[in-house]
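Re: the 111-residue chain
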Amino acid sequence: WIDVNCGSTFHRPTQNRYNKKAAASVLKAVARHTMDLAQAVVDSGSLENLVLCLEEFDPIVKETAVSALGQIARHSGKLAQAVTDAGSIPFLVLSVQVFTSGRIALSLLHN
C-alpha cells in the first residue's frame, strides 16, 4: 500500500513552489493509472491540498494541480463529483479565464 498523502508539503507556510509542484506531480502520477489509485488519492484527503494549489500565484503549480485533478476525475463520475465537491470549480473557471492552465482546466470542466 502506498501513502499518497502529501499534505504536510502543501501546508507548511515556508514550503516553496517547487515542492508543491513536485507533490502535485506525484499525486497526478499515482491517480493516472487506475480508478483504485485515484480513489486512494481522494481517500487520503489530497483533493483539498490540490485545490489549495489552485490558489497559488505560480502558474506552474496551478497547472500541475489542474492536471492532477483531471487525472482523478477522468476515471468515473463518482471521482469527478469528488473533485467538484472539493471546491475546485470556481478555481478552474478562473484558470480558464486568466492563466496558462486554461486549456487543461477547460478540458476538465468539459468532462
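Residues 1-5 have pLDDT under 50 and may be disordered.
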